[in-house]
Design brief:
With about 550 residues, the chain is α+β, with helices and mostly antiparallel strands. It has 15 helices and 28 strands. About 40% of the residues are buried. The structure holds glycyl-adenosine-5'-phosphate.
Length: about 550
């Protein structure tokens, strides 16, 4: 599915001054400083496209995945027919028979167009390159390529153009034009200066590059033993469709959900975890009769959007975008629904980037596997078909249609981090993370005001009681209370309970709210029920 919508096209100089825009550098610095996300293999210089989650990040990601599993599999929503949606979970292998990926079309067709720079040795996704060219009176020979959504790269192109034209920035808007690389004919590539090159004519023509990670199964490591790391979790679901139907009580319409790692040898991993080479997906394949596909597509599209809102992406930064006709995926039939749930990341601003795709995949995948594996994957629906003389349907045999809501767990975490990041000059930390309590990695903190006078013992007891019921409760007796609050603000802990001198007299504690910094006193016996209510599934 497509990724960024119109980001580069709509970008203009005044965007940078928009106060609503958060700095990705600041967000990444906080992620490192507070242990949300680290560069993978950092002590060896890092490895491009791979990221590790630190203690806070691992818990944040787990909370997001748990919320998805809870709301999709364990307690699914009510469907358009007024009944609870039927959903089961699955956990399939990362490595499957290589024929799975031939049947799915990934070995032959899971390609991105790649352009190489002979001078800088840079590699770029051709569909992520834009070209700045001059028009009108200021006609210039060279054209400058830049990377979509990469501010530095775009600035460089404008600077080089101004230098060539011997003029100052900003360039008069009617004298320049930005077009996608695809619109530049190969015969003009000799005029093209690459994003990291300093002379024209060094970019190669776009070539198809397969994104599948190859590996070998067994000891010989010969070409006969080639296998692939899965590029999506979806195919594991399709190839186990028959087993699930035969062994569980599910009846069409029903869904199979799976989350897990996926691997893509992305040409240009970038924008922090947004485009990584190893990432996690949360996918549902929902099987229904083709006559009901439009209804289920609309249901899942709207429900998934509402779900992202319910866990805290409640602002204008979330949108639904139906695909244009020319964006249809290889499995989609003309007229079938496909949309992206998109988030306005700081690096796509003012445009949006894909968080989840919702697609009507028709019966494409089941049909492909049925043909390649030569195993019948049809479903026998006893509630359909002509009526028999006894008034009962005779049944209908068919390959179900599939509606697929396919979300990225890492992109979800990234969106949650970006949304939560809230600069605030009034607090010592200058920033706080406004996580929805359900997703927050630390749910509550319990502090003794000072590390003496019986306060640590009361704090310990309260923390131990709370930990029995709620996952992560932080206790800390070091540093001043202000510094401890500041640390919790950066960790996004929504509630702090402080045991102080009054607690010992009247059994009340100070409750400090992260978002408002307001403090109030509540009874120590009310703390657990207060947290229970706040950590429930209430609407944002
Ligand atoms: N089964 C359909 C499928 O895989 P996709 O749009 O290619 O569709 C689904 O991927 C989701 O997986 C995306 O919406 C995105 O959240 C996530 N995703 C895809 N490629 C990714 C990457 N390189 N890094 C991080 N997340 C990625």
């Amino acid at each position: 599915m497509g990724c960024m919508s119109d980001a580069a096209k709509t970008k203009s100089a005044d965007v940078a001054a928009d106060p609503g825009r958060k700095s990705m550098d600041d967000i990444m610095a906080l992620c490192k400083r507070r242990g949300f996300i680290f560069q993978a293999s950092e002590i060896y210089g890092g490895i491009n496209g791979f990221w590790d989650y630190g203690p806070l990040g691992a818990q944040l990601k787990k909370n997001l995945k748990d919320a998805w599993w809870q709301d999709c599999v364990l307690s699914p929503p009510t469907g358009p027919d007024g009944r609870e949606v039927e959903m089961v979970g699955l956990d399939t292998c990362i490595i499957q028979h290589p024929k799975v990926w031939e049947a799915s079309g990934h070995v032959g067709g899971f390609n991105d167009p790649r352009v190489d720079c002979k001078q800088s040795k840079g590699r770029y996704r051709a569909d992520h390159l834009f070209v700045l060219q001059s028009t009108g009176k200021m006609l210039a020979k060279p054209m400058y390529a830049f990377i979509e959504g990469d501010e530095e790269s775009e600035k460089r192109a404008y600077k080089l153009m101004a230098k060539y034209l011997k003029t100052n920035l900003p360039l008069p808007p009617d004298q320049t034009d930005v077009v996608p690389l695809a619109q530049i004919p190969l015969s003009e590539y000799h005029r093209l200066v690459g994003p990291d090159a300093n002379e024209p004519g060094t970019l190669t023509e776009p070539r198809a590059f397969n994104l599948m990670f190859k590996t070998y199964v067994g000891a010989t490591a010969s070409e006969d033993d080639v296998a692939y790391l899965r590029p999506e979790t979806a195919q594991g679901i399709f190839i186990q469709f028959k087993n699930v139907v035969d062994t569980s009580r599910v009846r069409v319409p029903f869904g199979i959900a799976q989350m897990g790692k996926a691997f893509r040898n992305e040409v240009t991993p970038r924008n922090f975890t947004f485009r990584s080479r190893e990432f996690e997906q949360m996918e549902i394949e929902f099987f229904c009769h083709k006559d009901d596909a439009a209804k289920w597509y609309a249901f899942w599209r709207d429900w998934r959007l509402a779900w992202w809102r319910s866990i805290g992406l409640g602002s204008d930064n979330l949108q639904l975008r139906e695909h244009d006709k020319d964006e249809l995926a290889h499995y989609a039939k003309e007229g079938a629904g496909t949309s992206d749930i998109e988030y306005r990341f700081p690096f796509t601003y003012p445009g949006f980037g894909e968080l989840e795709g919702v697609a009507d995949r028709s019966d494409y995948d089941l049909r492909q596997h049925q043909e390649h594996a030569r195993v019948k994957l049809e479903y026998f629906d006893t509630e359909r078909g002509e009526l028999a003389p006894n008034g009962q349907p005779k049944g209908e045999r068919y390959l179900p249609n599939v509606i697929e809501p396919s979300a990225g767990a890492d992109r979800g975490v990234l969106a949650v981090l970006c949304e939560a990041y809230t600069p605030d000059d009034t607090r010592p930390s200058k920033v706080y993370m406004k996580f929805h309590p359900r997703i927050a990695p630390i749910k509550a903190a319990v502090f003794p005001l000072v590390n003496k006078d019986g306060m640590p013992e009361v704090a310990d007891k309260l923390a131990r009681d709370l930990k029995k019921r709620y996952s992560i409760i932080e206790t800390d007796a070091k540093q001043s209370i202000g510094k401890r609050y500041a640390r919790m603000d950066e960790a996004g802990c929504p509630f702090c309970f402080t045991i102080d001198g009054d607690t010992l007299k009247d059994n009340t504690v100070t409750l400090r709210h992260r978002d408002t910094q307001e403090q109030e006193r509540i009874g120590i016996d009310k703390v657990a029920s207060f947290l229970g209510e706040k950590l429930g599934l209430q609407e944002n």
